[in-house]
Design a protein that fits this description.
Elements: E1 4-7, E2 10-13, E3 18-24, E4 34-39, E5 46-51, E6 58-60, E7 68-73, E8 78-83, E9 92-98, E10 117-118, E11 122-127
Parallel strand pairs: 2-11
Antiparallel strand pairs: 1-3, 3-8, 4-5, 4-9, 5-6, 7-8, 9-10, 9-11
Protein backbone atom coordinates (compact mmCIF):
# COMPACT_ATOMS: atom_id res chain seq x y z
CA UNK A 1 0.00 0.00 0.00
CA UNK A 2 1.26 3.47 -0.91
CA UNK A 3 -0.13 6.70 0.49
CA UNK A 4 0.53 9.95 -1.33
CA UNK A 5 0.22 13.51 -0.05
CA UNK A 6 0.68 16.51 -2.34
CA UNK A 7 1.69 20.01 -1.33
CA UNK A 8 2.85 23.25 -2.89
CA UNK A 9 -0.16 24.42 -4.86
CA UNK A 10 -1.34 28.00 -4.83
CA UNK A 11 -2.37 31.09 -6.75
CA UNK A 12 0.25 32.66 -9.03
CA UNK A 13 0.36 35.02 -11.97
CA UNK A 14 1.08 33.92 -15.50
CA UNK A 15 4.79 33.49 -16.09
CA UNK A 16 5.53 32.55 -12.51
CA UNK A 17 7.01 29.33 -11.18
CA UNK A 18 5.66 26.85 -8.68
CA UNK A 19 6.98 23.67 -7.15
CA UNK A 20 4.73 20.78 -6.21
CA UNK A 21 5.82 17.98 -3.92
CA UNK A 22 4.42 14.54 -3.24
CA UNK A 23 5.34 12.69 -0.08
CA UNK A 24 4.95 8.92 -0.28
CA UNK A 25 4.72 6.30 2.40
CA UNK A 26 6.13 2.83 2.00
CA UNK A 27 9.56 1.30 2.43
CA UNK A 28 10.12 0.52 -1.26
CA UNK A 29 9.43 3.88 -2.82
CA UNK A 30 11.96 3.26 -5.58
CA UNK A 31 9.86 0.29 -6.70
CA UNK A 32 7.04 2.61 -7.74
CA UNK A 33 6.94 4.59 -10.92
CA UNK A 34 5.41 7.99 -10.18
CA UNK A 35 3.46 10.55 -12.13
CA UNK A 36 1.55 13.81 -12.03
CA UNK A 37 -1.88 14.30 -13.53
CA UNK A 38 -4.14 17.32 -13.48
CA UNK A 39 -7.83 17.97 -13.79
CA UNK A 40 -9.44 21.26 -14.67
CA UNK A 41 -13.13 21.96 -13.96
CA UNK A 42 -15.35 20.19 -16.44
CA UNK A 43 -12.47 18.33 -18.01
CA UNK A 44 -11.06 14.84 -17.77
CA UNK A 45 -7.99 14.08 -15.73
CA UNK A 46 -4.95 14.42 -17.97
CA UNK A 47 -1.38 13.20 -17.85
CA UNK A 48 1.34 15.74 -17.05
CA UNK A 49 4.58 13.87 -16.37
CA UNK A 50 5.97 10.56 -15.18
CA UNK A 51 9.23 9.30 -13.74
CA UNK A 52 10.59 5.78 -13.36
CA UNK A 53 11.60 4.26 -10.06
CA UNK A 54 15.26 5.07 -10.63
CA UNK A 55 14.48 8.58 -11.82
CA UNK A 56 16.34 8.01 -15.06
CA UNK A 57 13.33 7.85 -17.38
CA UNK A 58 10.82 10.66 -17.68
CA UNK A 59 7.88 11.44 -19.92
CA UNK A 60 6.00 14.69 -20.37
CA UNK A 61 2.81 15.84 -21.97
CA UNK A 62 3.47 18.03 -24.99
CA UNK A 63 1.68 20.91 -23.31
CA UNK A 64 4.23 21.09 -20.48
CA UNK A 65 7.40 19.89 -22.19
CA UNK A 66 10.20 22.38 -21.68
CA UNK A 67 8.37 24.15 -18.84
CA UNK A 68 7.85 21.42 -16.24
CA UNK A 69 10.41 19.06 -14.72
CA UNK A 70 9.59 15.93 -12.77
CA UNK A 71 12.08 14.43 -10.36
CA UNK A 72 12.26 12.22 -7.33
CA UNK A 73 14.38 11.73 -4.24
CA UNK A 74 14.17 8.08 -3.23
CA UNK A 75 16.08 8.71 -0.02
CA UNK A 76 13.34 11.11 1.09
CA UNK A 77 10.39 9.30 -0.55
CA UNK A 78 9.39 12.44 -2.40
CA UNK A 79 8.45 13.34 -5.94
CA UNK A 80 8.60 16.88 -7.25
CA UNK A 81 7.09 18.77 -10.15
CA UNK A 82 8.91 22.02 -10.86
CA UNK A 83 6.73 24.27 -13.01
CA UNK A 84 8.02 27.32 -14.86
CA UNK A 85 6.41 29.87 -17.16
CA UNK A 86 2.97 28.97 -15.90
CA UNK A 87 -0.02 29.75 -18.08
CA UNK A 88 -3.70 30.23 -17.20
CA UNK A 89 -4.43 26.95 -18.98
CA UNK A 90 -2.26 25.18 -16.38
CA UNK A 91 -4.93 25.92 -13.80
CA UNK A 92 -6.16 22.62 -12.37
CA UNK A 93 -6.05 20.31 -9.42
CA UNK A 94 -2.76 18.43 -9.61
CA UNK A 95 -2.63 14.82 -8.48
CA UNK A 96 0.33 12.65 -7.59
CA UNK A 97 0.05 9.03 -8.73
CA UNK A 98 2.03 5.83 -8.32
CA UNK A 99 2.10 2.43 -9.94
CA UNK A 100 1.97 -0.65 -7.77
CA UNK A 101 5.15 -2.67 -7.34
CA UNK A 102 6.87 -1.65 -10.51
CA UNK A 103 9.57 0.94 -11.15
CA UNK A 104 8.68 1.06 -14.84
CA UNK A 105 6.43 3.70 -16.29
CA UNK A 106 5.07 1.22 -18.79
CA UNK A 107 2.77 1.63 -21.73
CA UNK A 108 -0.34 3.77 -21.71
CA UNK A 109 1.22 5.86 -18.94
CA UNK A 110 -0.98 8.76 -20.05
CA UNK A 111 -4.10 6.89 -18.94
CA UNK A 112 -5.21 7.47 -15.34
CA UNK A 113 -6.43 3.86 -15.18
CA UNK A 114 -2.83 2.63 -15.42
CA UNK A 115 -1.96 4.18 -12.07
CA UNK A 116 -2.85 2.45 -8.82
CA UNK A 117 -2.45 5.02 -6.06
CA UNK A 118 -3.54 8.65 -5.91
CA UNK A 119 -3.10 11.61 -3.64
CA UNK A 120 -5.89 13.97 -2.67
CA UNK A 121 -4.74 16.69 -5.06
CA UNK A 122 -3.47 20.24 -4.72
CA UNK A 123 -4.97 23.27 -6.46
CA UNK A 124 -2.87 25.34 -8.85
CA UNK A 125 -4.43 28.56 -10.12
CA UNK A 126 -2.69 30.75 -12.67
CA UNK A 127 -4.14 34.19 -13.22
CA UNK A 128 -3.67 36.12 -16.44
Amino acid sequence: QVQLVESGGGLVQAGASLRLSCAASGRTFNNNAMAWFRQAPGKEREFVAAVSGSGQTTYYADSVKGRFTISRDNAKNTETLQMHTLKPEDTAVYYCAARSNTPYIGNDYYSPTRWDYWGQGTQVTVSS
